[in-house]
Amino acid sequence: MISTTHALLLVGVMALGTMALRFLPFVLFSKGTPNIVLYLGEVLPYAVIAMLVVYCLKGTQFLSAPYGMPEVIAVLLVVLLHKWKHSTILSILAGTICYMMLIRILPWI
């Protein structure tokens, strides 16, 4: 068991580290944001989403039942809902619920 002093020191060091990381961008970019950082801010969100989609679909088996249908239907629902409502939370929540229901229903069909 650690002592109270040791625990307080740990919390203090973690707080200082967190504050330093939060303040560092303001110190580094006080004269203006470099163009490369602005560019990365524009393209990285799309790249991260693409990587997440690939990661989520990497284990999908299209050659055996149910032939990837739950995944395809859920992805289509997410895309259509997001294009229609422009709500990330709604799209992801509906896609997750749809997928969970389909993986429970489709094996029995």
Could you please describe the fold and organization of this structure?
- Helices cover 76% and strands 0% of the residues.
- It has 109 residues and is mainly alpha-helical.
- It folds into 2 domains: 32 residues; 75 residues, no CATH class.
- The model has no long low-confidence stretch (mean pLDDT 92).
Annotation keywords:
single chain, 109 residues, mainly alpha, 2 domains, 4 helices
The share of residues in extended strands comes to: under 5%
* End-to-end distance: 55 Å
The poorly predicted ranges are none
Number of strands: 0
Number of helices: 4
Run of helices and strands? HHHH
Taken from the alpha-carbon principal axes, the silhouette is extended
Tally the structural domains: 2
* Cα-atom radius of gyration: 22 Å
The largest β sheet comes out as: none
Give the fraction of residues assigned to helices: over 70%
Task: Give average pLDDT, whole number.
Answer: 92
The secondary-structure class comes to mainly alpha
What order do the helices and strands come in, and which of them pair?
Blueprint: H1 4-28, H2 35-57, H3 69-85, H4 88-105
Helix pairs in contact: 3-4
Compact overview of the structure:
The protein is mostly helical. The protein contains 4 helices and no strands.
